[in-house]
Amino acid sequence: MDKINIIINGKPVKGYSNEYIVDVAKREGIIIPTLCNDDRLEPYSSCFVCVVEIEGNPKPQPACSTRITEGMVINTESQKVVESRQTALNLLLSNHYADCVAPCKETCPAGVDVKGYISLIEKGLYSEAVALIKKVNPLPAICGRVCVRPCEAACRRNLLDEGTGVGIDYMKRFAADYDLESVNKYIPEKEDSTGKKVAIIGAGPGGLSAAYYLQLKGHQCDIFEMQDSPGGWLRYGIPEYRLPNEIIDKEVKNITDLGVNIFYKKKLGDNIKYAELQDKYDATILTIGSQRGTLLRAPGEDCDGVFSGIDYLRNMELTGQRYDFKGKTVVVVGCGNTAMDCCRSAMRCGSTDVKIVYRRTEKEMPANPIEIHESKLEGVEYMVLHNPTKVNSDANGKLESVTLIKMELGEPDSSGRRRPVPVEGSEFDIKCDYILAAIGQKTDINFLDDVNSVATNGQLAANKWGDIDADPKTLQTGIPNMFAAGDGVTGPATLIEAISQANIAWLSCHQYLTGQEMKPEPKPFISKRDNFKNQDPNDYLGRYQKQMRQEMPVLEAGDRRNYKEVELGYADENVAKTEANRCFECGCSEFFDCKLQQYATKYNVDQEYYAGEFKQYNVDFSHPLIEIDNNKCILCSKCIRVCDEVVGAKALGLVQRGFDTFVAPSLNKKLTDTDCENCGMCVSICPTGAITENVPFKVMPVESDKIETIDCFTSEGASIELLHKSNFYFRAEGTPGLVNKKGSIGKHAKFGYRIFNDLERIKKPMLKENGSWKEIEFEQAFDIIKQKLSGNEKDTMVFAGGRLSNEELYLTQKFTRAALKTNNIASLNYVGRGTGYTYNTFKNVPMDQFKDAGKIYIIGSDLNYSNQLINHMIFNAAAVNGVEITLVTEKENAKLAYKCDKIVKTGSYHAFAKAVNKIMLENNWQNKFFIDGNVNGFDKYAEELSAENLDALCAKAEVSREELEKFTNAYNLEQNAIVVFCENEISADAATEIVNMVMITGKLGKTASGLFAVKEKNNSQGLIDMGIRPILGVGGVEFNEEYMKFASKYYNNQGPDSIAECQCDRISGGDFKNFMIFGEDPIGTAKDVNTVKSWFKNAQFIAVQDYFMTDTAKEADLVLPASFHFETGGSFTNTQKFIQTFEKDAKPLCGLDNLEQLSGLFNKFGIEQSADKNVIFGEITELLSNIGEFKPEFVNTTEDNNIVYFNHSCDIMLKKVSEIVDF
After folding, report:
1. What is the arithmetic mean of pLDDT over 14-29?
2. Of 739, 748, 833, 811, nearest in space to 1027 by CA
């Protein structure tokens, strides 16, 4: 195909005439946004986000469905294109009734990812939860005690009739306290030093926060604090019964441990001059707080006994002395959190008569409702709708009483609260001994002159409220290298607002220090349900199980006349996890990957631009693995198309028309009532999170770690990516790889990752003593194995499963032959099943040639349930290229039948295949040219088959001779015919005859023709290649004297005492006394448990290596903990004989990985063996290089041996995964 010339964004580019613009651009590194396009599907052009401008065309055109032509000039980012994309996105999002993020995060001034850390807490990942919090808030243990909790006010659980939202702060405190005491507490990584220094004035929450993040960026931070301890208002304004100083000190230590210095009793403008800071530091941040108290602004307030609330609180902390209020009446004016601290501490100072005077009602009180509740428990009296008008003193100037006036609520003021209005003539006096005014604070900038007298480039100024004047976007002051944050800028605010301010200031400071443009972090587009309507409780009631809040344990009211912390914290992690389960999981699980959100951000979309009618749907959770949320759907139809064009299931469709259209299961049924095959392709392909995985844990919309590996469940060898947080696995995605070039995977790979989180994993070797299990060390376990097996080699049998890597299998057989000096090694899954599976994958058709086939014959395999990647590729070939699919099946209700073009029902696969072969030979249809040059044994096979009676074979096959002849003729004449079968449904003898069938026609090894034999497990082929049979050596060759001549050096120059023989009879006869079983669970997966148990009837010692305490492990004497494949590293050989390597990407939970354990066993037997997977693979490669070329051979089978002793390929992993994905 000739290349043609086009121009994209001014760049000359070459492409092919059948290519679409989007694909050519992608190849050139130009990414055109698209939502409805996917490499696996034909273009659809529904979203119009991919439009581009083409010279000579008046309208932008969709790049996904427009093919290039010679001389085409394309602009992918012109103004017209940008406006068109913005319009398309505005329209899509105008009917997107969904939240990108949860309202709790949206409401938090610092933007703490509440949903994310709750999800981590639910999984017991407390330090990880703290790490997530500390991305924007470095003081979680403090905030967990004294935050005003706007997140909890915004919590949608408040819409239920439970009275309270989720206990967000309580969980934060639990996680933070856990982390503070953990030996593995979270320690953030620091960047390399920049050589820059920053002076920070004030060690309150703003200063500590700014220092924390700037230090992490590599800048040296020094904090100057005028008091003798850190914390600012946290220490000097909040009593210890709410926030113990010990907690402040621990949080501060975490910051100083990063290298931050704090210099105490240093006051700017006094004993530390700005001239000195200007000389020594590259930048300064002012975080001075707003700590000057105000009084009542009422006549007579200057008498003895009237204090500002903050002076009262601060004096107690500074002096360490408590006021003596015994027998005194204390009036606290105001009802914010400072007023709460004043009234509750006054009770602790001995008063039994403390009154709160507040000019509004309790509903308008700004204080935390919990604080109000606790103060009432402690005996504080509330006088609402009252306001002081005058302070009365005696002749000596000592407070005697306060005059109050009654108030009533009028119209709302600027804050939205109803304005209090005095009631004329309602004044009265109340006796009191002290008044604590908690009605406001002021900022003290008494260092202005000191700064401005030496500042060389600008001036520091105060605003009209007396606070520091700073740019609200960057918090840069009038001096370029000086920034300010916290209450000193905003006036008195909250702890979390101070931290939020610090986040702006440190970022601007960092940008200044590194020469970047100073600008806030760009705000991402956020879709909100609240943009469409106020949330209605009726939308939530009845949809969630009632679960009351886990309340905070507290000191009894009678035990609080002290400064002990009142709130005691959750008792244990069960309480925290229970509370975590109250979370609705608002927001979108796909936030970090959602293309719609990313494009909406890029193109500055306004969700309310086309505000009007919208659709609202209930989320469908009826499918155990898949949930459908049509609120997020953009009708791209990718889910419908992939289910049809790739999977072939047609389980999804569009319902209704026009604006009422939505995606639903076929015929609007439940998805479980359709032909859905649980593959999860709809989940993987959805661009917006409208179809997601229905998980049994709190979803994790957090930035995650990734492990790139190979599917360990089925034999296709798909490349996958496991997403996890600290080894909690929460998603698996297909990634383009050697086999799955477009990233498709099946249900086992998509959903099977969940067993990696199974809490029942064995972590240490387990020894059975007197019927009970005890943990032991590996060395002791190896000693026991050495003791039990030495001298008993002939009575020892070693089994290894098809889930193990090539390296593990190789070392297992090497250990058996070199250390135990016996050939007694096998896979239990293949015991008694014959040799017909040994060479059936020779020259398997490459899967990417399915699309070029003329006809595909599937014999006895429900691929749509057992091997879905193969299913996807076959039925994509059928959908796109019209490949005819014929199913030959023994089943009355074959799961694959509904989507095949033709069904041939048979009573015996073995007889069916033999009858086909008989017909071909009787008609002389054999491909003699191919047979003579490529295979052995044809003449003998033909002679033996000629003795068979065709009518008898047809009778056994339960297929008429006419139908068989028709089938055989069609198969023979089709040049591009591919035969597919799975070992888990086809006997070894039937498999042998199917191989014969393909060889007779000469189709074996031809392009888009021949055989595709599907192995049962991820490394069933490795069992053959690594010699996991008594009669096979490495390479799948016969283990004989000739083999031993070149292989003996790999077996410690000694190897087995005798040449191998099949041990099936001895196994089934129960002759063996000692067993080592690696990665198989014969008892737990047996079709007939009693039969399998009889194999071990004479057992004197059984050692099992597995992930879990399987039924087989329970019968053992010793159990070794197994490591997962990604905790070990190695390689698998897939059913096409492709060897694919994977890395050791996670630390083994059990300490030693499988290769290290095998190496330890070798060492116990006096043989040095490396545990390095690369060294082992090199040894395997050397052995394989000595293997000669294989030539297939015709083998005649007489009777069908259809013995299968085990379900799930004798693997507990596959059994557990089947319990997840098959229902």
Report:
1. 94
2. 811
Q: What share of the chain is helix, strand, coil (3-state, %, to 5)?
A: 35, 20, 45
Other beta carbons within 10 Å of 699: 22
Structure tokens at 978: 């591919």
Q: Which two tokens stand for residue 406?
A: 């009654």
Question: Which residues, in sequence order, are bridge partners of residue 483?
Answer: 285, 476
Average pLDDT (160-183) is: 96
The pLDDT of residue 474 is: 98
Could you tell me which residues are beta bridge partners of residue 404? 388, 428
CA dist list (Å): 113 to 578, 858, 1007: 19, 50, 54
Bridge-based pairing of strands 197-201 and 220-225 is: parallel
- Asked if 49 and 62 touch (Cβ cutoff 8 Å), the reply is no
**With 70 as the cut, is the pLDDT of residue 506 above it?**
yes
Given a contact cutoff of 8 angstroms between Cβ atoms, the answer to whether 662 and 633 are in contact is: yes
Residue with tokens 């960026």: 217
Q: What pLDDT is attached to residue 152?
A: 96
204 burial level (CB within 10 Å; 0-12, 13-18, 19+): buried
Which neighbouring-strand residues pair with 856?
A: 885, 978
Q: DSSP character for 218?
A: T
Mean pLDDT of the 610-627 span: 96
Kindly give the pairing relationship between strand 977-982 and strand 855-859.
Answer: parallel
Mean pLDDT (whole number) for 45-60 = 95
What is the per-residue burial (b if ≥16 Cβ within 10 Å, else e) of 943-967? eebeebebeebbbbbebeeeebbeb
Which CATH number is 847-1014's, of 3.20.20.210, 3.60.40.10, 3.40.228.10, 3.40.50.2300?
3.40.228.10
Burial of 199 (0-12, 13-18, 19+ CB in 10 A): buried
- Is 663 within 8 Å of 655 (Cβ atoms)? yes
C-alpha 707/C-alpha 1142 separation (Å) is 10
Task: Report which secondary-structure segment, H or E, holds 317.
Answer: helix 309-319
* Residue 188 C-alpha from the chain's centroid: 21
Contact 598, 142 (CB under 8 A): no
Look up residue 204 and give its two tokens: 């309150």
Per-residue confidence (pLDDT) for residue 1202, from 0 to 100:
87
Partners of residue 1011 on adjacent β-strands: 979
Token digits of residue 670? 């439940």
In this structure, what token pair is assigned to residue 548? 């009351």
Residue 456 region by backbone torsions, left for phi larger than 0, else alpha for psi between -120 and 50, else beta: alpha
Q: In whole angstroms, what is the distance from residue 1121 CA to residue 1082 CA?
A: 17
Enumerate the CATH 3.40.228.10 domain ranges in the chain, comma separated.
Answer: 847-1014
Going 221 to 249 to 238 to 329, the CA torsion angle's sign is negative
Residue 73, both tokens = 């000039």
Determine contact, residues 269/290, Cβ cutoff 8 Å. Answer: no
In this predicted structure, the answer to whether residue 1059 has a pLDDT above a threshold of 90 is: no
Give the chain's count of helices (H) and strands (E).
42, 42
- The count of other CB atoms within 10 Å of the CB of residue 136 is 20
Strand, helix or coil for residue 641: helix
Checking if the pLDDT of 667 tops 90, the result is no
365 by DSSP, 3-state: which? Answer: coil
pLDDT score for 1: 66
pLDDT score of 666 more than 90: no
- CATH (residue range 103-186+525-580): 1.10.1060
% of the chain with per-residue pLDDT over 90: 92
Q: Hey, CA dihedral for 49, 50, 55, 60, is it positive or negative? A: negative
Token match 């997840």: residue?
A: 1220
The fold adopted by the segment(s) 319-439 is FAD/NAD(P)-binding domain (3.50.50)
* C-alpha R_g of the chain: 38
**Residue 861 to residues 909, 956, 974, Cα–Cα distance (Å):** 11, 19, 21
425-450 per-position pLDDT tens digit: 999 999 999 999 999 899 999 999 99
Question: For the chain, what is the mean pLDDT?
Answer: 96
